[in-house]
Amino acid sequence: MKKVTAISLFVVSFSVLVVLFLTLDFFSETETGTNGAMKSGSIHAEVPDPNVPESEPEEITTTASLMAVGDILIHDYVYNQAAIGNGKYDFTPMFRLVKPYLESADLTMANQETMIGGTEIGVSTYPSFNSPFEVGTTLKESGVDLVTIANNHTLDRGEKAIMNALDHWDEIDMAYTGAYRSEVDRADIRLIERNDIHFSFLSYTYGTNGIPVPESKPYLVNLIDIDLIKSEIDEAKRLSDVVVLSLHFGNEYERMPNEQQKLLASEAAEAGADIIIGHHPHVLQPAEWIENTDGSRTFVVYSLGNFLSGQRRDYKDIGGIVQIKAKKVVKGDEVTVSLEEPAFIPTWVDRQYTIQPMFQLADQQQVYSEIKQHMSQWIPDMQFIEN
Ligand SMILES: [Zn+2]
């Protein structure tokens, strides 16, 4: 009897020990798994093996897509179509078919050519534009994150229209660049981060339709000046991974870039601009890669045409959405940023001023294929989004 008790005691004690050991082991494994700080197995081998070389730093890759659209020029045809009475406007039907695309990118920018000074100072059309606030609100609701506002129409209705516009952009939390409240505002380079990739945005125009920029207020609109652009690219480069430069330039209604556009783009590229978005000609001009002497390459679209305007025929009612992806690879202290997969969605503005993706238009397939050929003539592998 005594012997049996002794054996039982031994079995019980052993079982308790085993359970205790397993439980402890379970908790230590769980802890390792939860905090994630320790690599698996490290709990069992805390002393590093001198024969195993130190592991390479982990490579972390992130990507972010950027979309851009061209000129938004709110002629009277457009705001009259959007009028809903009592001085109110609704532009949302005009953007409803492109909204899913604009929202699909990590970051979307638009060139708001006409100032949204609001009804307080009276809306107006060409040649001296002023647009309703609702244009901005609709852009915001359609997925646009930043507007470029250095254009030849920026000074059309003077400082008041600009300040009203900036107030509205601030109110709806829309980033803007190219026209500013003050020198302090101008010096603050706009930065937006997506997936750990930092983008900076600069915007300049060739001129302001003969209206002089007030000498004491040069911040009201950024004019193209290659030395200024170079120094601001330099600054933007220090603050970001990808410098996006918006240039309002070129000859109106010309479907190919002129020599000055080519020269300015190549100088800005060499100075460090990674993406150059052009507009003003009212028609599409092709995209290309610029190879820089440091081995990097810059993506440029010379003109994105009119995205929304009252202009018709001769390609003036055709614009588009360009997309480019930024890829960032971080390995220890090494950071490499590259651009890839340029893509385009040609768009057309119908008689109700609805912006329509052209691939959806059965009766316009001939001009659609011509536009695809036109935009990709220097980048044959450019993709066209068709779903
Ligand atoms: Zn223009």
Fold blueprint:
Layout: H1 2-35, E1 59-72, H2 76-82, E2 83-85, E3 88-89, H3 92-95, H4 99-104, E4 107-112, H5 134-141, E5 146-148, H6 158-171, E6 175-177, H7 183-187, E7 190-194, E8 197-205, H8 226-239, E9 242-248, H9 259-271, E10 275-279, E11 284-291, E12 297-304, E13 306-308, E14 318-331, E15 334-349, E16 355-357, H10 365-375, E17 383-384
Parallel strand pairs: 1-4, 1-13, 4-5, 5-6, 8-9, 9-10, 10-12, 15-17
Antiparallel strand pairs: 1-14, 2-3, 7-8, 11-12, 14-15, 15-16
Helix pairs in contact: 8-9
The structure holds zinc ion.
The site of zinc ion has 5 residues, from loops.
Number of helices: 10
What is the ordering of alpha helices and beta strands? HEHEEHHEHEHEHEEHEHEEEEEEEHE
The end-to-end distance, rounded to whole angstroms, is 84 Å
Q: Count up the domains.
A: 2
The percent of residues in helical segments reads 25-40%
- How much of the sequence lies in strands comes to 25-35%
Question: What oligomeric state is this?
Answer: single chain
* CATH-defined fold name of the largest domain: Purple Acid Phosphatase, chain A, domain 2
Question: Structural class of the secondary structure composition?
Answer: alpha/beta
- The strand count comes to 17
Please give the CATH class of the largest domain: Alpha Beta
Q: What ranges have pLDDT less than 50 throughout 5 or more consecutive residues?
A: 16-43
Overall geometric form: globular
Rounded to the nearest angstrom, the radius of gyration is 29 Å
Biggest pleated-sheet summary: 9 strands, mixed
Q: Averaged pLDDT, please?
A: 91
